[in-house]
Amino acid sequence: MTVTNEIMTMQRALNLLVGGTSLSREEARGIMDIIMNGEATAAQIGGVATALRMKGETRDEITGFAEAMRAHSNHVVTERTGLLDTCGTGGSGIHKFNISTASAIIASAAGVRVAKHGNRAMSGKSGSADTLEALGVNISLSGEQASRCLEAIGICFMFAQLYHPSLKHAAGPRRELGVRTIFNMLGPLTNPAGADRQLLGIYDRSKTETIASVLGDLGLKRAMVVSSFDGLDEISISSPTQISELQDGIVRTYTLTPEDLGLRTHALSEIIGGDSAENARIIRSIFDGNEFGAYRDIVLANAGACIFVGGSAASLREGVETAGTIIDSGLAAAKLRQLIETTGELSHVS
């Protein structure tokens, strides 16, 4: 049941949510507009976020919030489609290294156009922005600079803090609540370049189908939403992974094992990372061909999925094989060097 006859205010929304009534897509979009415009108090933002969490966020509510956040974002203008993002929710509580970041670079080296969206660490020790910075990448490109980077080398990084300034209004309540809320899901749903393909890892396995459906509502053509049985917001090499795959507007959910990808099973403890410097070291070691264990295999699993979703492989297993070839040929290391050099050069171009 939704209510559309009354003007939706934060107080009205909170009353509905506390009573167990879900908001419509339009109502949710309106509430997020109020938050993004700085017209809601900290207590109201925290109350709505908590009530949504306790009720359970619906597809329409998540879509409406994401649409409003997209409308308030700074954008990277690009005329081409077929863009891939690997931004996930984080929040697994497992201090792995930056698997999706490494996967994005490998996918780009395989010919997939990548508009990587990410942030500094929120729950782990090092977010994608932290690790890319440690690798030597300039993470602070403007929208125009990121667009030039994407056109020049087929990959760019968009630092979330620069592209979602209106989210600052929710920063205090989020920090003070200290629990996962709808805001944890929104970053991966609001790519500033309008990426239409995505590998999205999520901490909550019960929401893979919902988030895949939201991605479809937001206009994505292909996506995989992944959450492993051992708690990773990645495709795992330690346990099965639940996959909700979006293609042609249809969501299909299935379970994937490391063996399905032609990979060995490893202990979860073998993919643990550290701070940004350590995670940068791990990624360089993989790209330089010095890793043949769990670090390499989990990157192969996720990079393979990126290559598949990006349309450069006919199957997940073929994507994994392609990812291995990209590393072994030196193309992944070369793409990283290219990203470092190009973002450095663009930092001097207005």
Describe this structure in words.
The chain has a seven-stranded mixed beta sheet, with helices on both faces. Helix 5 links the parallel strand 1 and strand 2. Helix 3 (42-55) packs across helix 9 (168-177), helix 4 packs across helix 11 and helix 7 (143-153) runs antiparallel to helix 15. Residues 1-5 have low confidence and may be disordered. Helices cover 47% and strands 11% of the residues. The longest helix has 16 residues, at 294-309. The protein has two domains: 10-72, Transferase, Pyrimidine Nucleoside Phosphorylase, Chain C (Transferase, Pyrimidine Nucleoside Phosphorylase, Chain A, domain 3); 84-343, Nucleoside phosphorylase/phosphoribosyltransferase catalytic domain (Pyrimidine Nucleoside Phosphorylase, Chain A, domain 2), CATH 3.40.1030. The protein is of the alpha/beta class and 350 residues long. Keywords: Amino-acid biosynthesis, Aromatic amino acid biosynthesis, Glycosyltransferase, Magnesium, Metal-binding, Transferase, Tryptophan biosynthesis. It is an enzyme of class 2 (transferase). This is Anthranilate phosphoribosyltransferase.
Intertermini distance: 50 Å
Tally the structural domains: 2
Q: The CATH topology of the largest domain is what?
A: Pyrimidine Nucleoside Phosphorylase, Chain A, domain 2
What share of residues is helical?
Answer: 40-55%
Provide the gyration radius in Å: 19 Å
The total of helices stands at 15
Give the SSE string.
HHHHEHEHHEHHHEHEEEHHHH
Shape: globular
Domain Glycosyl transferase family 3 N-terminal: 13-73
GO biological process, one term: L-tryptophan biosynthetic process
Binding site for anthranilate 1: 88, 119
EC number: 2.4.2.18
